[in-house]
Amino acid sequence: MNQLDLERSAATIIERTLQYGNRAEIGWLFSVYTRDQVVSWIKDWGNIALPEPHLTFWKLVLDLQ
Questions:
Q1: Of 63, 22, 53, 18, nearest to 38 (Cα)?
Q2: Arithmetic mean of pLDDT, 8-30
Q3: Is the per-residue pLDDT at 37 higher than 60?
Q4: Is residue 5 assigned to a domain?
Q5: What is the SS3 string spanning 8-32?
């Protein structure tokens, strides 16, 4: 199996980790991608890709309005 390219697959990795990740996986996500990258993804794709209550949770955690 091929490994995911962290740069090319960033959108998929961020989406899946925000939705399904446990505490350790979320920690890994923020060690690989900057807060700004995650926030940018949420602003661009969160309304489409993250179901409730995940979207609301991450908006609260990251202080997004």
A1: 18
A2: 97
A3: yes
A4: no
A5: CCHHHHHHHHHHHCCHHHHHHHHHH
Q: What is the pLDDT of residue 65?
A: 81
Express as a percent the part of the chain with pLDDT over 70: 97
Model pTM?
0.90
**Domain count of the chain?**
1
Residue 36 lies in a domain: yes
By three-state DSSP, how is residue 39 classified?
A: helix
Q: Is 4 domain-assigned?
A: no
Domain assignment present for 56: yes
Task: Give the span between the Cα atoms of 52 and 6, in whole angstroms.
Answer: 26
